[in-house]
Write a structure and sequence with these properties.
This protein is mostly helical. The protein is built from two helices and three strands, in the order αβαββ. It has one domain.
């Protein structure tokens, strides 16, 4: 009887450990995906800021405009789903801050 209780307790602990491990990995992956998207956004906004500072860009630009003006090279790829990012995303300078209409 005592042996059966220990086996049951051990099984419960193992199942609980596996469950918590899976949940932790899901939360970690979701957070990591958000950080990877933020890196791409910040890189594009940095390049747009350089374009605005050099007066190569005025008002509102798109990722396509930045590529044509040689501020961005190659295709921008979403690091989460590996799809090409829409080149028609509008980027504008508001005060001293760059704002973009991101759609992922």
């Amino acid at each position: 009887m005592k042996n059966d209780n220990l086996k049951l307790l051990g099984l419960v602990i193992v199942v609980l450990g596996i469950y918590l491990g899976i949940k932790t990995m899901k939360v970690y992956n979701a957070t990591n995906d958000e950080k990877r998207l933020d890196v791409v956004k910040k890189q594009v906004e940095y390049k747009a800021k350089k374009c605005f500072d050099k007066d190569d860009c005025i008002g509102e630009v798109t990722i396509r405009d930045l590529r044509e003006k040689k501020y961005i090279y190659g295709d921008l790829v979403n690091p989460v789903n590996h799809e090409t990012i829409n080149e028609d995303i509008k980027i504008r300078l508001s005060g001293n801050k760059v704002e973009a209409d991101w759609e992922f």
